Amino acid sequence: MTERDQLLALCARLGATPAQATTMADQLLKRCDQLVAERGWTRVRAMEHLLTLVVRGRAGDTAPGFEGGKPPAPPPPAA
Questions:
Q1: Is residue 74 in a domain?
Q2: What are phi and psi of 36, to 5 degrees?
Q3: Cystine design at 20: which of 16, 39, 51, 52 (Cβ 3.0–4.6 Å)?
Q4: Do residues 12 and 23 make contact, with C-beta atoms less than 8 angstroms apart?
Q5: SS3 for 62-75, per residue?
């Protein structure tokens, strides 16, 4: 079973329709590659991070930094 197949199965178990699961799996794979390139993480570390966000989000738990709401005010201009 490929990594993509495993992600498809996970997304389906979390309640996604087949079309949604496909989109979600593809986006997770894409973002995983981005995290590896941008942050120098291992692929395992990047996927672990993403899957933690997915599972926590599905449970209604907001991870730090993803609270939403009104963005903070910009800093005052330098004098």
A1: no
A2: -60, -45
A3: 16
A4: no
A5: CCCCCCCCCCCCCC
In a domain, 70, yes or no: no
The neighbour count for residue 21, using CB atoms within 10 Å, is 19
What is the per-residue pLDDT across 17-41, written as a single tens digit (0 to 9) for each?
999 999 999 999 999 999 999 999 9
- Rounded Cα–Cα distance for residues 53 and 34 (Å): 16
Q: What is the pLDDT of residue 65?
A: 74
Domain housing 11: 3-58
Contacts of 22 (CB under 8 A, 6+ apart): 8
| Average pLDDT value for residue range 7-15 | 94
